[in-house]
Design goal:
One of its GO terms (molecular function) is monosaccharide binding. This is Glucose-6-phosphate isomerase. One of its GO terms (biological process) is gluconeogenesis. With about 350 residues, the protein is α/β, with parallel strands linked by helices. It has two domains: about 140 residues, Glucose-6-phosphate isomerase like protein, domain 1 (Rossmann fold), CATH 3.40.50.10490; about 170 residues, Glucose-6-phosphate isomerase like protein, domain 1 (Rossmann fold), CATH 3.40.50. The chain is about 40% helix and about 15% strand. The chain has a five-stranded mixed β-sheet with strand order 1-10-9-7-8, sandwiched between helices. α5 runs parallel beside α9. The chain is globular and about 70 Å long. The termini are close together. About 35% of the residues are buried.
């Protein structure tokens, strides 16, 4: 969760953000957001995709389902978990797998999000297939690449295990999807349903992200508890100036309107994959109707003279992985007048 957030902007941008914050306050926009008021956007079907606003509270009666997942994979029968999924169906799991160490007694989580033959072969050759659990993650079940990967691995396991092949597979998909039907037909060990009102790239706190977290042996109860604290911090009753989510959104939006549409993501060591997830989240979510924010990830830390006037820098750090040279580089950007947002995670 966000421990603190600090923004360093030149005067004109700071004034523009303050003006937008006043507009949001006068229009009760934060309340409208939490009420899923589609008129904040185009007034069409936007409310149908805002299920991520409620997903944290929904876990209060469902955390036991993640315990079942953890118990299933923590019995020692699996050495590896291979998640098959594209885009938003796998990005959160990828971040988790790269950001947290392997937990004792739990399998290693690997991600396969490509049908490139060389990559598939490399991943396959590194697995103990008889002790691998396959997670097929697809919201609709109609993602061609995921289906091809599933069919390849399932056919191979069926030749060896016969009708019990499905016991090495778990599905994460929406109820009524094509994949849901396949999982029932092929006898999957478990099926975990998605939420129809949550798009793939917003699905980190749904089963799409939490089932892989449980498989890794992570403390999902703590993850959800921290998410609840962030929900409270970003709630409708919190003043806009103290609301980290709203202020971050206003800064990115106002910055883009003022020509700062290249959001440059910088992260502490060990959080490298986080930028890739944010890249999709920002680009796909804002890239509509000829407008959008262009995220730049994995560029490295340059000096102020290396950048033009269209950048807005977001530095995501964590105290336990503090890097002096990175902090010095970000400080130099701030001192040069470049717009910088620092987000410190706990």
């Amino acid at each position: 969760m966000i421990e603190n957030q600090a923004m360093s902007f030149p005067g004109s941008l700071h004034t523009a953000i303050e003006k937008e914050a006043t507009l949001w306050r006068e229009s009760s926009n934060v309340h409208r957001l939490w009420a899923k008021d589609a008129t904040l956007w185009t007034g069409n079907d936007e409310a149908d995709g805002l299920g991520w606003l409620d997903i944290v509270s929904a876990w209060s009666t469902r955390l036991h389902t993640l315990d079942l997942v953890r118990d299933f994979v923590g019995q020692g029968q699996f050495t590896d978990v291979l998640l098959l999924g594209m885009g938003g169906s796998s990005l959160c799991a990828h971040v988790l797998a790269k950001s947290f160490p392997e937990q004792e007694g739990f399998p290693s989580l690997q991600i396969l999000d490509s049908i490139d033959p060389a990559q598939v072969r490399r991943v396959r050759d590194g697995l103990h297939l008889d002790r691998c659990l396959f997670v097929v993650s697809s919201k609709t079940g109609n993602t061609l690449e995921t289906n091809l990967l599933y069919q390849s691995f399932f056919d191979e396991r069926r030749k060896r295990c016969g009708q019990d092949a499905g016991l090495q597979f778990i599905a994460v998909t929406d109820s009524g999807s094509t994949l849901h039907d396949i999982a029932v037909r092929d006898g999957f060990a478990q099926i975990h349903e998605g939420v129809s009102s949550i798009g793939g790239r917003y699905s980190a706190l749904s089963n799409v992200g939490m089932v892989p977290a449980a498989m890794m042996g992570l403390n999902t109860e703590t993850l959800i508890a921290n998410a609840k604290r962030m929900v409270a911090a970003c709630g409708a009753e919190v003043s806009i100036e103290k609301n980290p989510g709203v202020m971050l959104g206003l800064a990115l939006g106002v910055g883009a309107r003022n020509g700062l549409d290249k959001v440059t993501i910088m992260t502490s060591p060990g959080l490298d994959t986080f930028g890739g997830w944010l890249e999709q989240l920002l680009a796909e979510s804002t890239g509509k109707m000829g407008k959008g924010i262009i995220p730049i990830d994995s560029e490295g830390f340059g000096s102020p003279v290396d950048y033009g006037s269209d950048r807005l820098f977001v530095y995501i750090g964590i105290d336990s992985r503090y890097d002096v040279s990175q902090d010095d580089a970000v400080t130099a950007l701030e001192q040069s007048g470049q717009p910088v947002i620092r987000i410190n995670l706990s």
